[in-house]
Specification:
Layout: H1 4-25, H2 42-60, H3 65-80, H4 84-102, H5 105-108, E1 112-115, E2 121-124, H6 126-150, H7 160-167
Antiparallel strand pairs: 1-2
Length: 169
């Protein structure tokens, strides 16, 4: 696959699916179970990752960073209360938006000027920011792994190397 942004985002989709599939194997209450960690529950982690991914998608499609941050704040409680299957469906729908954008070379390299609400701006592109989106998800999948271990459950592998091996590349 020659489009690295799309390939790397496909890894993100695969890794999220690994987590969703593992969570569906566990008792239903694990998803919202309170735990002493960086986040109060796995549902809080998933809501945070979803809202961050949604915010970046909004920016990639021309909305302001201020809009993305306000949207995340507006939807936070609602997202945290979603059940696992609802959240999974929302991730799938959002990933379709990303794949649509990332499949169009002219859009992924189009210059973006991102205004930081705290001041300053950054000139970049969706192609340059996809690794940030994916790395952010990877970091928080690690949080989920630690939280599951704390609750007495094993997680699942979401390593990029395993993804490449399974894809045969």
């Amino acid at each position: 696959m020659s489009n690295f942004s799309l390939q790397f985002y496909d890894f993100n989709i695969w890794a999220n699916n690994q987590i969703f599939n593992r969570l569906k194997e566990l008792p239903k209450d694990v998803y919202h179970q309170e735990v002493q960690s960086v986040f109060s529950s796995i549902s809080s982690v998933m809501a945070h990752v979803y809202l961050s991914d949604l915010g970046w998608a909004e920016v990639f499609f021309g909305k302001s960073m201020k809009h993305a941050l306000e949207l995340a704040e507006q939807l936070k409680e609602q997202m945290e209360s979603k059940e696992l299957e609802e959240m999974e469906a929302m991730f799938i729908e959002l990933s379709e938006r990303y794949k649509s954008l990332l499949g169009q070379k002219e859009n992924i390299h189009k210059p973006l000027i991102i205004e930081n609400p705290a001041g300053g701006q950054m000139k970049t592109s969706a192609a340059e920011l996809v690794p940030h989106v994916v790395n952010h998800g990877t970091y928080h999948r690690g949080n989920i792994t630690a939280m599951l271990r704390q609750m007495g459950y094993a997680s699942t592998s979401t390593d990029y190397g395993l993804y490449l091996f399974l894809k045969g590349e």
